[in-house]
Amino acid sequence: MSWVPSRQLTLFDGVDAIDVELLRIIEIDARASFTQLAQHVGLTAPSVAERLRRLEDKGAILGYAAVIDPAFLGLSVAASIRLRINGADCGKFAAKVKQWPEIVRLDRLTGDDSHLALALVKDVKHLEQLIDQLTFHRATATSVILDTPTRDGSVLRAAEHAVKQTLRRATKAPKAKD
Questions:
Q1: For a tag on the chain, would you pick the N or C end, based on fewer CB atoms within 10 A?
Q2: Positive or negative CA dihedral for 21, 105, 80, 113?
Q3: Which residues pair with residue 82 across a beta bridge?
Q4: Is the pLDDT of residue 79 over 90?
Q5: 84 pairs with which residues across the strands?
Q6: Spatial distance between the Cα atoms of 85 and 156, rounded to a whole number of angstroms
Q7: Gyration radius of the chain over CA positions
Q8: Do residues 121 and 79 make contact, with C-beta atoms less than 8 angstroms apart?
Q9: Which residues of 10-43 are buried (b: 16+ CB within 10 A; e: fewer)?
């Protein structure tokens, strides 16, 4: 297990530096034991368990999951599929997507396209069949994903960056008027 300790005092609403450190560790390794977490942050295992339960109750932790390699299961082609759906039909479409198990993620977007789907399929022929089903319902634009050099970026890193950006803007002195 390789954790990079960070004792930055970055505070979020109702979350202290120890909570942030616990989130940082479980984001890297969700299987870390309470004992391991406790040793890392200098608390007891029951205290860590209580903190994590509180973070779960607040909705900070959405779940714990294994990251499975799709290729291991024969799903060697990943594709992003952009769809353009009328606003009134968005809810119906989101419900209908459940009929296509190849679509493992669906995001609603702003801009020209209304949705972005991530599909995992066994081969290009399988992708073609899925696209044919989707285009029967809506227009699509598809890109095959060749590589994923960054997988599951750090939510905490992004949040800390946003806080720093906000603080920079807030601490900039207003320009003097001539």
A1: C
A2: negative
A3: 116, 141
A4: yes
A5: 139
A6: 33
A7: 22
A8: yes
A9: beeeebeebbbbbbbbbeeeeebebebbbebbeb
| Residues present in the chain in total | 178
**Which residue's structure tokens are 């309470």?**
34
Query: Which residues on adjacent β-strands are paired with residue 107?
Result: 116
Whole-angstrom Cα distance, residue 118 to residue 81?
6
- CA 60 to mean position of chain CA atoms: 12
Q: What Cα–Cα distance (Å) separates residue 56 from each residue in 35, 63, 177? A: 18, 8, 49
Q: Give the whole-angstrom CA distance, residue 3 versus residue 23.
A: 12
3-state secondary structure of 59: coil
User: What pTM does this model have?
Assistant: 0.72
Report the DSSP beta bridge partners of residue 13. Answer: none
Q: Residue 176 carries which DSSP code? A: P
Instruction: Tell me the per-residue pLDDT of 31-67, one tens digit each, with 9 for 90 and over.
Output: 999 999 999 999 999 999 999 999 999 898 999 988 8
Six-digit token string for 21? 């450190």
User: H or E element: which one contains 77?
Assistant: strand 77-84
Q: With bands split at pLDDT 50, 70 and 90, how would you rate the model's confidence at 8?
A: very low
Q: Amino acid letter at 72? A: F
Looking at residue 174, the DSSP 8-state letter turns out to be P
